[in-house]
Design goal:
The structure holds two protein chains of two kinds. By secondary structure, chain A is an alpha/beta fold. Chain A is built from 26 helices and 36 strands. In chain A, the strands form nine sheets. Chain A has a seven-stranded mixed sheet, with helices on both faces. Chain B has a domain of 105 residues: Alpha-Beta Plaits (2-Layer Sandwich). The longest helix of chain B has 22 residues. The chains are: A alpha/beta, B alpha+beta. At the A-B interface, loops of A face helix 2 and strand 2 of B.
Chain lengths: 846, 181
């Protein structure tokens, strides 16, 4: 047992692996040693000395968090010497501490309070005035805002450096540092740079004292007055476990729940501060029906009856096929399943889809292909087992902040190197990643180059079509040949005109690299996989079953329905086109906003105008809602329960924190009531009933009880291991995009790291972090047309124009501009042509 | 039978003795409101929220009184005032639910909430018993005014505010020992 050491702590023997600290050993015995600066995710720096213990034969007390456990060590935690040592440390910590607990927002959950109560001397011996750090006369009470959403009070800070280490070691940002020495030490941002890491909120959660306080919680409520409800963040696909801290129907803050397989206690600011939109007063307050051109408030009964009557009318006149259903990727499994039953069974149509933010949606075959790849996926905690991690077509920091943290951890520990291929540089500050930028939508050409380079072919003549340099690709190919590679295929790989080919190429590349290499697909959206598996796409029936005659028949039998529609069904893009042409008569839109976010505002607006009857269920009144016939207020995520499947394929459940506010109703309840009015005979008491039905009928979800997925989540075992034979020998590089002279730039767009559609717009903090939409342009490009940072510019395409502020950004590929999509006031999609693959724009200074 | 009669005859004078003993005593019943009761020094009456000498309220809305309250009758919401201090935006005590236990006074770290000696605050409507911050500060202002009028001592004000150390107040140049009857 060479790698084990045995030591005695408080007279009890314990054996731990070599390299553990005394603290680890004590924890194993259940002995609690107080700590401030120790954190399991960070390297010990022994800054606070709170964890002093006595070790026999050692002249001085040692810090348990840093001292390695050694064979034969005899440790005393509660000897007089150790206790007095800790008491002295505690007294020292409190010498200059302001003790303003009554006004401190950490009061009640403060480690300094707790430790001072259980280990402190109980009184002070000094009578000198306490040292005060005053930054700025403007802030009389010593607190200053160090970032847009975070306040810092240096007097309360105990200099444990957890905050700087979290930001630096884990997030890889360097915008918080420690300055000065001794009792004058302050933690501060660097000059003129706001503290704006995407993970800044975690410092607030893990600061042991009240030195860092979130603006959204400052002077709001005492912690002991709040209740906690376990939830899952639904603002991206990573599935972070969160705790909702609420009182009554007010949500005060969102904290990480610390699931060490998923987010490991660290969530991004989008989830932490953006999720606070849930109880905003601007929420839709009553069901509304359009009467004489205006939306009028009505009762729920009236609204439901009206919707049911209108849908019945249209079914009688034009048949169920003339109704379309558009959902969103945040629908829980239960909602998605009911959504699918509503469309397929009650209305009798296959026109249903949950994706509406992309135009090139994966087909049924591609979806099956993606699922089959996901059957053999790599969970977050195993990323570090790969030598190379390759991202294709994903700005992973923006779309998958927490997944990226795992990648960063793998890089940081020295286990892996990272390669990012995208149409702009992605953001890996302290954790360098090699980067290749190809043309927008150049995934296909790039993958082809990489494939050929791996095969050893000459790629000189095709690299220009991807806009990359041959030596870069060849170097990568060389690197990938040594060691295991994990390939992440991002959203832009499959939401692409050449999605199928891209995925085939990626599989081919994986096969070239050998069986050890793996592919993970990235899904943006809290429940993308779940929506597919629960039947919210036209081609796939619930539980991942192909929509073919036999399966349809079996499903109809199990539902007790006569017959399900035999048509192909349309996806969102097809539905909007059909509606604009007048072929679809009614649209049922559940939490989606095609007018605001479908790439091609013109077609979405036309669809909303042409369709005879539009129902929109929404939390906030959206652009789509403004032109609807019926608007139904949808409950926000703390107000219902359900299960979600993250991009890791982990099934997790979120709980209801409080009853629905503002006369809104949960998505499943709205659908169920309308269905019942239309003759649906079953009834559910809640998502749990629906889940039980899903579990009874499916192979994937069988034997999983609703409560059973509560805490750690469950990596679901998807059985889509059909090996597809693909032949890629005939693949040829396609032509590079050629912007016309009048519109010389290529427009790219995507989410911004802080935003999720229109929702986060209603969270006050997000407004402060990212005020207003901007257009990002490469510095070189901007200089060549004499535009500078912060200028107001007009972007115009053949379709429309926008006026925005410009930010010059080195990361944007020359020849392209980037607009984040999530700002209501900047209608990015007016620029887009719903027919062309790429949009070309020009930028002029105003 | 005889026994019973004997007992009764014996009991009558004993009972009457008590009557005669008390018949000439001063009555305990007070002619309230003409005569005010003598309150115990530990009497706990209507709450008030104290102020600093410069007039700002002491309460920082820390919530400890509400946490201590067994009747759950204190509600508050904090805010930031123009100077950047934490103060109460809403501070409500439901006096009809209060059991006048004094725990709130005990819990308060800022010496802001007190139970005064006021007990005459009957109302016709139950909602009127809900005292908000202004009313509670008003109670304090009234007490202070009455006191100043009654006693006319400048030092009293200083002494009163220095809750932490009465000794300190005694060192005040204006300090005069109050006459005790
Ligand atoms: S940091 Fe803790 S001990 Fe210090 S004032 Fe705040 S609650 Fe009190
Ligand atoms: S601000 Fe908080 S986390 Fe940072 S050093 Fe001070 S006490 Fe530690
Ligand atoms: S006196 Fe007792 S019951 Fe009344 S408010 Fe104070 S703590 Fe609550
Ligand atoms: S009265 Fe005292 S205990 Fe109550 S909130 Fe104000 S300062 Fe805190
Ligand atoms: S926890 Fe050990 S020195 Fe801080």
């Amino acid at each position: 047992m060479a790698d084990q050491v045995t030591l005695t702590i408080e007279g009890r023997e314990v054996t731990v692996p070599k390299g553990s600290t005394i603290l680890d050993a004590a924890t194993r015995l259940g002995i609690v040693i107080p700590t401030f600066c120790w954190d399991p995710r960070l390297r010990s720096i022994a800054a606070c000395r709170m964890c002093l213990v006595e070790v026999e034969k050692s002249p001085k007390l040692v810090t348990a968090c840093a001292a390695p456990a050694m064979d034969g060590m005899v440790v005393k935690v509660f000897s007089d010497k150790a206790v007095n040592g800790r008491k002295a440390v505690m007294e020292f910590q409190l010498v200059n501490h302001p003790l303003d607990c009554p006004t401190c927002d950490k009061g009640g959950e403060c480690e300094l309070q707790n430790h001072s109560f259980s280990h402190g001397p109980g009184q002070k011996r000094t009578s000198e005035p306490r040292n005060r750090v005053i930054f700025d006369g403007k802030y009389v009470f010593d607190e200053i805002p160090i970032g847009p959403v975070i306040w810092y009070n240096s007097n309360r800070c105990i200099k444990c450096y957890k905050c700087t280490r979290l930001v630096k070691e884990i997030a890889g940002d360097a915008d918080l540092g420690a300055f000065n020495r001794g009792y004058k030490t302050i933690l501060h941002r660097h000059k003129n740079v706001p503290f704006k890491s995407e993970f800044s909120g975690n410092t607030v959660q893990y600061c042991p004292v009240g030195a860092l306080v979130a603006d959204s919680f400052r002077f709001k409520e005492r912690t002991w007055m709040l209740e906690q409800t376990p939830s899952v963040c639904h603002l991206c696909g990573d599935g972070c476990n969160t705790a909702l801290w609420h009182q009554g129907q007010k949500l005060f803050r969102i904290y990480a729940r610390w699931n060490n397989h998923v987010e490991d206690g660290l969530i991004c600011d989008r989830g932490r501060f953006g999720g606070l939109y849930a109880d905003d007063e601007r929420r839709l307050q009553h069901p509304q029906i359009r009467k004489e051109g205006k939306l009028v408030e009505v009762s729920w009964n009236e609204a439901i009856r009206y919707v049911a009557d209108m849908l019945e009318n249209i079914m009688d006149k034009h048949g169920g096929e003339s109704i379309g259903f558009i959902g969103n990727e945040m629908l829980s499994n239960e909602e998605a399943y009911l959504f699918n039953r509503f469309a397929r069974q009650v209305i009798g149509t296959n026109n249903l889809d949950f994706r509406f933010e992309d135009r090139h949606l994966p087909s049924k075959e591609l979806n099956f292909h993606l699922l089959s790849i996901m059957s053999d996926r790599v969970p977050y905690i195993d990323f570090k087992k790969f030598d190379n991690i390759l991202f294709v077509g994903a700005d992973s920091e923006v779309r998958h902040p927490v997944l990226t943290l795992w990648v960063k951890r793998a890089i940081y520990s020295g286990a892996s190197r990272t390669y990012a291929a995208y149409h702009r540089k992605t953001d890996y500050n302290l954790h360098p990643a090699e980067s290749i930028e190809y043309f927008p939508q150049g995934e296909y050409n790039f993958l082809l180059c990489l494939y050929k380079a791996l095969k050893g072919d000459d790629i000189k003549d095709i690299t220009s079509s991807a806009g990359v340099r041959a030596e870069d690709v060849e170097k990568w190919a060389e690197d990938f040949k040594n060691g295991k590679t994990l390939i992440f295929a991002g959203e832009d790989v499959y939401n692409n005109p050449r999605g199928t080919e891209n995925i085939q190429l990626i599989e081919a590349i994986r096969d070239l690299l050998g069986q050890e290499s793996k592919v993970n697909i990235l899904f943006d959206g809290a429940n993308y996989i779940g929506n597919i598996l629960c039947g919210a796409t036209p081609g796939i029936l619930p539980f991942g079953v192909d929509n073919i005659y036999d399966n349809r028949k079996a499903l109809a039998d199990s539902w007790g329905a006569e017959k399900l529609s035999d048509s192909e069904g349309m996806n969102t893009a097809e539905m909007l086109n059909a509606a604009a042409e007048g072929k679809l008569k009614a649209l049922f839109i559940l939490g989606a906003d095609p007018v605001g976010f479908y790439p091609g505002r013109g077609i979405a607006e036309k669809a909303m105008k042409k369709a005879e009857f539009k129902v929109v269920c929404e939390t906030f009144l959206t652009e789509t809602g403004k032109s609807a016939d019926v608007v139904l207020p949808l409950a926000a995520f703390p107000e219902y329960e359900g299960t979600l499947i993250s991009t890791e394929g982990r099934l997790q459940s979120f709980q209801k924190a409080y009853e629905t506010a503002y006369t809104s109703a949960e998505g499943w309840r709205i659908m169920l009531r309308i269905m019942q009015k239309l003759g649906f005979e079953e009834d559910y008491n809640g998502p749990e009933d629906i889940w039980n039905e899903i579990g009874d009928n499916s192979e994937i979800f069988s034997n999983i009880s609703h409560k059973g997925v509560s805490f750690r989540g469950l990596l679901i075992d998807m059985k889509f291991d059909k090996k597809r034979e693909t032949d890629i020998s005939g693949f040829e590089a396609v032509e590079a995009p050629k912007p016309p002279p009048e519109y010389p730039l290529i427009l790219t767009y995507g989410t911004s790291v802080y935003q999720k559609r229109h929702l986060t717009h209603y969270a006050a903090d997000m407004e402060k972090i990212e005020p207003g939409a901007r257009i990002y342009m490469n510095t070189k490009n901007a200089n060549s047309i004499d535009i500078h940072d912060n200028d107001t510019v007009r972007v115009s395409s053949g379709k429309g124009s926008l006026t925005l502020k410009l930010t010059t950004d080195q990361r944007v590929r020359p020849g392209t501009v980037f607009i984040p999509t999530n700002f209501i006031e900047a209608e990015f999609n007016t620029l887009l042509d719903s027919k062309a693959d790429l949009t070309f724009v020009k930028v002029e200074k105003l | 039978m005889l026994e019973i009669i004997k007992t009764v005859i014996k009991a009558i004078p004993i009972g009457l003795a008590t009557t005669f003993k008390n018949i000439f005593r001063k009555p305990t019943t007070l002619q309230y409101p003409d005569v005010m009761p003598d309150l115990s020094p530990r009497f706990r009456g209507l709450h008030y929220l104290a102020r600093y000498p410069d007039g700002t309220e002491r309460c920082v809305c820390c919530g400890l009184c509400a946490a201590a309250c067994p009747a759950n009758c204190i509600y508050m919401e904090p805010m930031e005032n123009e100077k950047g201090e934490r103060k109460a935006r809403i501070y409500i005590i439901n006096e009809i639910r209060c059991i006048f236990c004094g725990y709130c006074e005990e819990a308060c770290p800022e010496e802001a909430i007190f139970l005064g000696r006021e007990f005459e605050f009957c109302k016709y409507n139950i909602p009127d018993f809900i005292y908000d911050k202004e009313m509670l500060l008003g109670v304090f202002d009234k007490i202070e005014k009455d006191r100043r009028v009654r006693e006319g001592h400048k030092f009293i004000r200083n002494a009163r505010f220095d809750f932490r150390s009465p000794v300190h107040a005694m060192k005040h140049p204006d300090y005069k020992r109050e006459k005790t009857e």
